[in-house]
Amino acid sequence: MMTVNEVSKLTGVSIRTLQYYDKIGLLKPTKYTESGYRLYDDIALEKLQQILLFREFEFSLKEIKEIISKKDFDKNKALEQQITLLTLKKERLENLISFARGIQFIGVKAMNFSAFDTSKIDEYTKRAKEQWGNSQEYFEFQQKSKNQTKEKQNEIIQNFMQIFVEFGALKNMLPDSANVQNQVQKLQDYISENFYKCSDEILSNLGQMYAGNSEFTINIDNAGGVGTATFVSKAICIYCGK
């Protein structure tokens, strides 16, 4: 058995996150000590590994809970898909490193944007979500987007990213200030209107992903400036009372 502190050190998942996973029923400890301390066995650690890998598919915690709780959940198949996705991400990172080194040596005149192409990753993630993602939110997103033109979808995404541009302009304020919290409300309302109903729980999960050094973080910081993703994550955390 491992304590929550030991699991945190082993996996890099914060104690607070593990406590939250317990609270929402996503990852229950194997047992509690008489003093109330959480203890985890190898089975629990395997489940945590599955959760972390599904986060790479950018599923919400609610979706992950539904997926791994199914009786017919195929762990081997999921792992195989996750390995493929991680391999694609590794290839993209290697391309970006080569591209950056090229700029370092020959300057920015080499206008080659192929290293930034995420189409393979996006397509594979989309296929995985279609297979695993049968949540109400994903179904609602499909219904809203199925009749949209490419131009309309681009417009929705551009307006979505504009919200983070506005967040970037507010970074000199405290994340709990009225203006910043109103901007969080604007973000939540926009997601509900254009993608799926964004509850406080879903928004909280998104906030964690925004600051998780993922594609979300890169895109948000590109829109609003370095540090915007972390700032938005803190503001969402306050908004949701986490």
- Helix share bin: 55-70%
**Outline type:** globular
Strand order of the largest sheet: 1-3-2
Kindly estimate the percentage of residues that lie in beta strands according to DSSP.
Answer: under 5%
Biggest sheet: strands, sense, closure?
3 strands, antiparallel
Distinct helical segment count: 12
Strand-pairing-aware structural class: mainly alpha
Report the strand count.
3
Run of helices and strands? EHHEEHHHHHHHHHH
Mean pLDDT over all positions? 81
Distance between the termini: 29 Å
Low-confidence stretches: 106-112
Computed over alpha carbons, the radius of gyration is: 20 Å
TL;DR of this structure?
This protein is mostly helical and 242 residues long. It has helices at 4-11, 15-23, 42-55, 61-68, 75-106, 119-132, 136-145, 150-168, 178-194, 200-210, 215-224, 228-239; strands at 2-3, 31-32, 38-40.
